[in-house]
Write a structure and sequence with these properties.
Blueprint: H1 3-9, E1 16-17, H2 28-34, H3 50-70, E2 77-80, H4 83-97, E3 104-108, H5 113-125, E4 129-133, H6 143-149, E5 154-158, H7 172-182, E6 185-189, E7 209-213, E8 224-228, H8 243-246, H9 254-267, H10 275-290, E9 295-298, E10 308-313, H11 318-327, E11 330-331, H12 347-351, H13 356-359, E12 362-366, H14 373-390
Parallel strand pairs: 1-11, 3-4, 3-5, 5-6, 6-7
Antiparallel strand pairs: 2-8, 7-8, 9-10, 10-12
Length: 393
């Protein structure tokens, strides 16, 4: 049963879903690929009996498939419980591994909290010194700023591939090349890049560590992966067992891993967020918003995810904006889904120099393959009315 039939049974109007940067619907073909591993192949991959060996064979096959897509070694693929765990393993594991060589770390001020909070913990509780890179008014990090921040005791740099709140694409290949030249490990959180940007292989990021997450490109929630360039071996952030070649303790979620690999093969080489289809729709939403006085578009005008439109509304606030849109059957976001409900203004917009009052009035539309020109036309028509009403004009 598809989502439209479910909404019909519930007696509800199917919402216009414009929050694909938060999560995407699970693709039916991916779900079908997962089903045998929820029933027939149910063993623990670490068990040595026949049921466990069948699960181990399926896990090994999944790892080989993903490594073939990424064009890396199977041993360089670590399956995790999601993007946050992949980021944590990359940051904590690498910083702790290399602390004897140096305790200086570098990251940007617009990272996802899975990265920012990890660096904050290292600085506040483990004696590391962290440099937070500035961004320009569009939320972009300068390679020259990374170069200026590097020191003799720098061991790790982490900069995301694409920003989840405003869609700005970072020059990670240039940053990675610089770090390799200086002998510094480089991590990129590529959670928002997979399925949205052209993909050749995992090495296009010029990174030693790359984090991905399945539910951002029509895979299941609760599973991610971390590329770790050999011979780097970050220290495990979990204890309890020697899973994933002793890099991540915990029994592998085989069904979800199969879903991650199936979605990766289907929706990453030919991005499920097709730029040719989505950029005109995003442009129509951006034009409708920008036509309202007091609205400012955010994010880079060109180096931006094709599906993402972000703007602030003078004289309003995010909570009221989200509620008003929801009442009209429009699912949007005020930034990161992981920070939903926070009364703090967007840290991304603050880093971009946006005044706090405006930073607390962010709207993000992130389109997906299901969105139609008719839906976008409807949103573009009623959006000005919503914003005028909220501002009492």
């Amino acid at each position: 049963m598809d989502i439209r039939h479910r909404w019909a049974i519930l007696g509800a109007v199917r919402p216009i879903y414009l929050d694909h940067n938060a999560t995407t619907p699970l693709d039916p073909v991916v779900r079908a690929a997962m089903e045998p591993f929820l029933a027939e192949v149910w063993g623990n991959p670490s068990s040595i009996h026949s049921v466990g060996r069948a699960a181990r064979a399926a896990l090994d096959d999944a790892r080989y498939r993903l490594s073939a897509l990424w064009r890396c070694r199977p041993s360089e693929v670590v399956f995790t419980g999601g993007g946050t765990e992949a980021d944590n393993l990359a940051v904590f594991g690498t910083a702790r591994l290399l602390k004897a060589k140096g305790r200086h770390l570098v990251t940007s001020s617009v990272e996802h909290h899975a990265v920012l909070h990890a660096f904050r913990h290292l600085a506040e509780h483990e004696g590391f010194d962290v440099t937070y890179l500035p961004v320009d008014a569009f939320g972009r990090v300068g390679v020259e700023d990374v170069e200026a921040a590097l020191r003799k005791d720098t061991t790790l740099v982490s900069v995301m591939a694409a920003n989840n709140e405003v869609g700005t694409i970072q020059p990670v290949a240039g940053i990675g090349a610089l770090c390799r030249e200086r002998g510094v490990r480089f991590h990129t959180d590529a959670v928002q890049a997979f399925g949205k940007l052209p993909f050749r292989d995992i090495h296009q990021f010029e990174a030693d560590l790359v984090s991905v997450c399945a539910h951002k490109f029509c895979g299941p929630k609760g599973v991610g992966a971390l590329f770790i360039r050999s011979p780097l071996q970050p220290l495990s952030t979990q204890v309890g067992g020697g899973h994933e070649n002793e890099r991540r303790a915990g029994t592998e979620n085989l069904a979800a891993i199969v879903g991650l690999v199936e979605a990766s093969e289907r929706f990453v080489p030919s991005p499920v967020f097709a730029e040719a289809a989505l950029r005109p729709l995003a442009a129509r939403l951006a034009a409708a918003a920008a036509a309202v006085p007091g609205v400012t578009l955010r994010g880079h005008p060109e180096a931006r995810l094709a599906n993402t439109v972000a703007f602030t509304v003078e004289g309003a606030d995010s909570i009221a904006l989200m509620a008003a849109l929801d009442l009209e059957g429009i699912c949007a976001s005020s930034g990161s889904a992981c920070s939903a409900g926070s009364l703090e203004p967007s840290h991304v917009l603050k880093a971009m120099g946006v005044p706090p009052a405006e930073a607390n009035a962010l709207v993000r539309f992130s389109l997906g393959r299901e969105n139609t020109a008719e839906e976008v036309g409807h949103v573009a028509e009623i959006l000005p009315r919503i914003m005028h009403r909220l501002r009492g004009r």
